[in-house]
Amino acid sequence: MGHITWPPKLLRTDVLGEVKDTSNRKFTRDIGRAVHISHNTYYAFGDTFCHDARGGFVGVTNNSIALCEDPRGAPCRSTYLGVGGERGKVGTFVPHTRGEEEWENQPEHKEKNDRVTCWSFGGIIEEREGCGSGWVFFDKMLTHGGDAGHHFGMGVARVTVQPDRSLKVERPMGETMVFGEGEPKFGSISHLCDDDGWVYLLGAHDPAPQQFDMRCHLARIRRDADFTQRGNYEVWINTLDGKGAWEKHYNHVDDLKKLQDLDIQAQGAIFKAPEFAPEGKPYLWIGVNKFGVGHFYVGAAPAVTGPWEVQDLGELPRDPDPWDGKSSGPKYALYPNPRASDLARGEMLCTWTDAAQLGGKVIAARFWFEGSYDRPPPPPPAEAAATNERRKSGFGQLEEKLKSKLGGFLKR
Question: Are residues 125 and 112 part of one domain?
Fold first, then answer.
């Protein structure tokens, strides 16, 4: 297949536009991480501002998921399954418990727009490739209007694909969290199902107030294990020799080993692509950092535990179709989709959020990396379209004939 150069360089970026719903109803939403189960691709969104068929606002869903029928050919088209009626408010992906619903519906909380959010940005972990069932981690917290409130920890829910390809999500632990408040949010950023049978869970540790101590940490669990049992997890801890080790228990967050350059990364994905990654560094990271600068970061490592080296490739592209014709807002939540990318030619399909408008907008683009490949990247879309038009025209046909005759003459 070939390998990207290191440090990485981009040849070009083909911006595809906004990820829109096939119903043509208006949904402003953020995150838009590509997740996979039962050979289907879905986009997992955060807060989703829903509108009816006439464009009227009908409410906010705190996390939603939509099917992408053709992630390779039409990555900007997604469909909410099971949305009925003219109102068109979509259901939640990770549902509330009855207690959480009752809390939200109390008059004093409805008046203040207090919500229980169960945001899930780390992807779906399928028990076996294509089996149609698995797990998803979610970050449970209270929000008050637009402000974050109490954080409860990381929960885990059960996901099962239904015959119509909708997803049934259940919370077997109820309101009990598998990782408590004060712990790193293992599984909140990304996961990796590796060849060794382990699932590696990347999560951030929020610094204490008034402290600038950004860090990310790793936990792991066997892919076929019960994810609701805390005893099935191991964490990556410091050792005296500095190499690190996997242990089931730790006493303090400072016992956990840091991840070098990966510590300041915020949203993105770790994945393994030995045929695409730089030689000797098969583990890759693509995402954004915690400073909110909206830059495209690429990392590589020889092992999932590191050492990680992360490179800044510059600012993400502007929104090609801003809501007011000019604005481009803060950019965050950058996620690669290697399953829908032509890695053999250096292409990586990614999505990110542009927050110029209320609720955000998820944008997709194909990023083309410099490297050594069996086949060169295709020409830019505009150039390819112009070439096709020339071929259809009489001039193009004449040009092809002249090239053919000249080629025959040179062979004599």
Answer: yes
Picking from 344, 195, 207, the residue whose alpha carbon sits closest to that of residue 266 is 207
My answer on whether 369 and 394 are in the same domain is no
Q: Give yes or no: residues 264 and 412 share one domain.
A: no
Sign (positive or negative) of CA dihedral 398, 401, 402, 403: positive
Q: Do 327 and 226 fall into the same domain?
A: yes
CB 31 within 8 A of CB 45: yes
Domain span at residue 371? 2-378
- My answer on whether 285 and 361 are in the same domain is yes
Q: How many CA atoms lie within 13 A of 175 on its CB side?
A: 12
Render 304-354 in DSSP notation, one character per residue. Answer: TT---EEEEEEEPPPPSS-TTSS----EEEEEE-GGGS-GGGTEEEEEEEE
Return the pLDDT at 404. Answer: 59
**397 — phi, psi (to 5°)?**
-65, -40
The count of structural domains within the chain is 2
90-108 average pLDDT score:
95
Query: CA–CA separation, 185 vs 219, rounded Å?
Result: 10
Number of helical H runs and strand E runs in the chain: 4, 27
Q: Strand (E) positions, 120-189?
A: 124-126, 133-144, 147-161, 167-170, 179-180
Judge if 212 and 252 occupy the same domain.
yes
Nearest to residue 217, comparing CAs of 205, 209, 199?
Answer: 205
- 131-140 pLDDT, tens digit each: 999 999 999 9
The rounded distance, in Å, linking the Cα atoms of 367 and 295 is 13
Are residues 392 and 293 both part of a single domain? Answer: no
Question: Which of 262, 263, 286, 282 has the alpha carbon at shortest distance from 273?
Answer: 282
Q: How far apart are CA 155 and CA 138, in angstroms?
A: 5
> Tokens representing 86?
């003219």
pTM for the structure as a whole: 0.91
